[in-house]
UniProtKB/TrEMBL annotation:
Protein species of origin: Salvelinus namaycush (Lake trout)
Every Rho-GAP domain range: 673-861
Keywords: Cytoplasmic vesicle, Endosome, Hydrolase, Lipid metabolism, Membrane
Gene Ontology biological-process annotations: phosphatidylinositol dephosphorylation; signal transduction
Entry's family note: Belongs to the inositol 1,4,5-trisphosphate 5-phosphatase type II family.
Lineage: Eukaryota, Metazoa, Chordata, Craniata, Vertebrata
GO CC, alphabetical: cytosol; early endosome membrane; phagocytic vesicle membrane
Pfam families registered for this protein in UniProt: Exo_endo_phos2, INPP5B_PH, OCRL-like_ASH, RhoGAP
Coiled-coil ranges from the UniProt annotation: none
Enzyme class: hydrolase
Primary location: membrane
Protein name: phosphoinositide 5-phosphatase
Gene name for this UniProt entry: LOC120031692
SUPFAM superfamilies (UniProt xref): DNase I-like (SSF56219), GTPase activation domain, GAP (SSF48350)
EC number(s) recorded for this UniProt protein: 3.1.3.36
InterPro entries in UniProt: Endo/exonu/phosph_ase_sf, Ig-like_fold, INPP5B_PH_dom, IP5, IPPc, OCRL-1_2_ASH, OCRL1/INPP5B_INPP5c, Rho_GTPase_activation_prot
Length: 861
């Protein structure tokens, strides 16, 4: 495993001064192995330091930064450096040899450093007193020492460590420059990042040579607890195996159904259920909690047996909300990824959309999770990892797929006969998998247990409420990958806390372990072969095309074109899209290249998706014509040439992302208006100066259409503004608003409600303008003052504010049917109507909600 900055402790520091030098010390035998450690000697005024650096790009970057710093000192030899930046890492106590730095390591280092005194005296003779050391900055004030054993946790100074790591990352991205006198003694750094990738790629291709499989048991559990607290021990579920598993992955859904959890992601039940899980694990082994990740009520706990913990690395956790507007975390997923020995594993716990008829929404949730849940890699140069880029993927949770085409009596009759095979043929998840709509490549074991939903809480009785839900296998466990065998798949009827029953699966997974001797031999053979061809050939690629045109780009509608790179050179190559001069990123904000960097083996191909997606942050400029779908991408080959790609297209203006003033000037749909008219309305900066019609509309017709549709069709709709709509229906609603066809809005009530929220979120200037935001916060507790602020709104903004609040008050009259209340509506709409011009903290968020509540609890007309 490569050594990183987290593997070492910074205890002392050598200043780089005029008498500093770097000399390579590797012997001829060591140089014959390119992948071997490198030895260099650092000379300074009173001593020298011999450093053995591990194979890898981090070592090259370290030497590059040392050389850059030395070069900077040489440029101004008369100016003695003061090293003032060291003060923020100093402890209050100072010891001999200067100020000691005790920044704690996260692992055990393998770096070996030997230190010598030029005069032959003891090491301590190098050090000065703190006072003298501060006077003479060129005299080796502080000395680095890296220990090979763990450092006492009592010496941790976390803030300094985090700050140092951040500075280190910032420094490493800078390019180094070499002076002629010193360049000859430095290693060939520019090619080394590519070499690392070459070695990594070859090692991956030859993995079967140096790895072998060993089976480990994984216990997977999922439980929708319906907002309850633990009322019974979990041992019948978690301790149900005859022998203790090697690992536990335990997922919960609906951990907390309170509004505080939903809106502020804060719940005491996290600790309660974590404690219940820890007490319920198999009693015949000791386990360590490696990771806990939670999004509102979706929580995943990962435990391993103590003896395996040292083999867990590269641990990351991510969350994705798929609730209303694709943000709310009442639905979505939490996930972890880690490396166990030499196998990469991903575990996902998801809670998908509810209700029997919403299987398409569940399919969409699954696809959103797969596309949006990306894990960062420890090497920042590498692209994020998607879920499917792992050796094994374990997916559990309340997937909410139901039984279709059977009424409740038929289902219960088949359950009584234990005819699970017939019953399973009506299962929505099975049907969607068979149609390859979701979970392609995943496997689920045979179901031989009762449906896990819905029961009367505290019993084994099916739902006896007025709704009388049809029983269903909502809670599922699936896997994807090789060398996986399921040992059991069952529900646990003994637990009665919730209206769901917990489910467990015990999997035996073949994990790749490394044979160190074979690995070393394979590694040496790879670096020998790379040594022969490196620097002999220049990389080159063939591009499938260099021009890309995106026709009729629309708001929030994804378009993609594929660029295929073929490595036609004699060596593997590394590519990256790079920034153009004076531009902050390699592309415009509406464009992405996926992947933006990568590695192509000799003779190999790489498909790159150029993706266009216009959202709230880019729509306004495109609507106004101040930006166009035009860009030039620069594709750079390391040690090769640059290729230029042309991206063009046309954007269809949308009411989404247009201002309230502009839309009030347009009686016709926006796409029926000449582009020059729209640009004239938005280019002056004061849209009230340009008059297209004699009498502007009181409110944008698009807002009226959506609100009127909901007023007529959805006052009693359950979970309105809380349950997401379908993306396909949003597309139809957007096109209807932008083109005027058809005459009435298509789609479900939930899709129209979500479209209204997206519209308000995309306004370039919110309903309450940014200039009045601070006044709203200051008067949030005073009803009359709040009303006064609203009176200051521009007329069209004030009309929209009053129209929406009147509609919401109407919805509250039907709260017994739609389950809406003042808190829910204030939380959702205050965030859209009173947007902060800067990042909003929790206190401001609560003040905006308090402000908006005044207009929901009484009629201010």
């Amino acid at each position: 495993m490569a050594i990183t900055g987290e593997d070492v402790t910074l205890e002392e520091i050598f200043p780089i001064s005029n008498d500093f030098a770097v000399v390579e010390m590797s012997s001829a035998d060591e140089l014959s192995f390119v992948g071997a450690d490198t030895r260099v000697r650092l000379n300074f005024q009173d001593g020298e330091l011999e450093v053995r650096l591990p194979f890898g790009s981090h070592s090259r970057l370290f030497l590059s930064e040392v050389n850059r710093a030395w070069s900077d000192v040489c440029k101004s030899p008369k100016e003695a450096p003061k090293f003032e930046w060291l003060h923020k890492y100093r402890k209050a106590s100072k010891g001999q040899g200067g100020v000691k730095q005790t920044l704690a390591p996260l692992g055990t280092t393998h770096t070996k450093i030997s230190q010598h005194k030029k005069t032959g005296n003891s090491l301590n003779a190098v050090s000065r007193s703190p006072v003298e050391g501060n006077k003479r900055v060129n005299s080796g004030v502080e000395h680095p020492r890296v220990e090979s054993g763990p450092v006492s946790q009592g010496k941790v100074k976390r803030e300094g460590w985090d700050e140092l790591k951040r500075e280190g990352r910032d420094d490493l991205v800078r390019q180094s420059s070499h002076t002629a006198s010193n360049k000859a003694t430095m290693l060939a750094m520019p090619q080394f990042g590519l070499r690392d990738n070459l070695v990594r790629c070859e090692l991956l291709k030859n993995e079967d040579i140096y790895t072998y499989l060993e089976n480990f048991s994984f216990f997977l559990g999922t439980y929708n607890v319906n907002g309850q607290t633990p009322k019974e021990g979990l041992r019948p579920w978690l301790g149900s195996t005859s022998t203790p598993p090697d690992m536990y992955c335990v997922g919960f859904q609906e951990l907390d159904l309170s509004k505080e959890a939903f809106f502020f992601n804060d719940t005491p039940k996290e600790t309660e259920w974590m404690r219940a899980v820890s007490e319920g694990l198999h009693p015949d082994a000791k386990y360590a909690l490696v990771k806990l990740v939670r999004l509102v009520g979706i929580m995943l706990l990962f435990y391993v047996r103590n003896e395996h913990a040292k083999h867990i690395s590269e641990m990351e956790a991510e969350t994705v909300g798929t609730g209303i507007m694709g943000r709310m975390g009442n639905k979505g997923a939490v996930a972890i990824r880690f490396r166990f020995h030499n196998s990469d594993i991903c575990v996902v716990n998801s809670h998908l959309a509810a209700h029997i008829e919403e299987y398409e929404r569940r399919n969409q949730d699954y696809k959103d999770i797969c596309s949006r849940l990306l894990f960062r890699q420890h090497d920042p140069a590498l692209a994020p990892l998607a879920i499917m880029k792992h050796d094994v993927v374990l997916w559990l949770g309340d997937l909410n797929y139901r039984l279709s085409d059977l009424d409740v009596d038929n289902v219960k009759d088949l359950i009584a006969k234990k005819d699970f095979e017939t019953l399973h043929s009506y299962d929505q998840l099975k049907r969607q998998i068979d149609e390859k709509a979701v979970f392609v490549g995943f496997v689920e074991g045979e179901i031989g247990f009762l449906p896990t939903y819905k029961y009367d809480t505290g019993s084994d009785q099916w739902d006896t409420s007025e709704k009388c839900r049809v029983p269903a296998w909502c809670d599922r466990i699936l896997w994807r990958g090789k060398n996986v065998r399921q040992l059991h798949y069952q529900s646990h009827m003994d637990l009665k806390t919730s209206d769901h029953k917990p489910v467990s699966s015990l999997l035996e997974i073949g994990i790749k372990l490394v044979n160190e001797e074979s690995y070393k031999k394979t590694f040496e053979e790879i670096v020998r072969s790379l040594d022969k061809m490196e620097n002999e050939c220049i990389p080159s690629v063939t591009l499938s095309t260099r021009e890309f045109h995106f026709k009729d780009v629309k708001f929030r509608q994804h378009q993609a074109e594929t660029l295929t790179l073929h490595n036609d050179g004699q060596v593997p190559c590394q590519f990256e899209f790079i920034q153009k001069l004076d531009e902050p990123t390699y592309c415009k904000p509406w464009l992405t290249a996926n992947p933006a960097k990568g590695f192509i083996a000799q003779g190999g191909n790489m498909d790159i998706d150029l993706e266009v997606f216009v959202n709230r942050s880019t729509a306004t400029e495109l609507n106004a014509g101040r930006q166009q779908i035009e860009d030039i991408l620069v594709l750079h080959l390391e040690r090769g040439k640059d290729y230029f790609l042309s991206v063009s297209g046309n954007y269809l203006p949308s009411c989404f992302g247009s201002s309230i003033q502009t839309l009030c000037q347009l009686r016709d749909p926006i796409q029926e208006m000449p582009l020059e008219t729209i640009r004239e309305l938005t280019s002056s900066g004061d849209e009230t100066r340009t008059v297209i019609i004699d009498k502007p509309l009181d409110i944008p017709k698009e807002i009226w259409q959506m609100v009127d549709h909901l007023y007529r069709n959805a006052p009693k709709q359950g979970e309105l503004f809380q349950q997401p709509g379908l993306r396909s229906e949003f597309v139809e609603i957007r096109d209807c608003l932008d083109t005027g066809m058809p005459d009435s809005l298509p789609g479900s009530n939930h899709s129209v409600a979500e479209a209204l929220l997206i519209f308000l979120d995309a306004l370039p200037e919110p309903v309450v303008p940014f200039s009045l935001y601070q006044q709203c916060l200051e008067c949030c507790s005073n009803t009359s003052q709040c009303k006064k602020v609203v009176s200051l709104l521009p007329q069209c903004h004030k009309n929209v504010f009053n129209y929406i609040t009147a509609f919401l008050r109407e919805l509250l009259k039907h709260s017994t049917h739609n389950s809406l209340d003042v808190n829910i509506l204030a939380t959702i709409f205050a965030a859209l109507l009173l947007r902060s011009p800067t990042k909003q903290d929790l206190a401001e968020k609560k003040k905006t909600q308090e402000f908006f509540q005044h207009f929901l609890v009484q009629d201010l007309s």
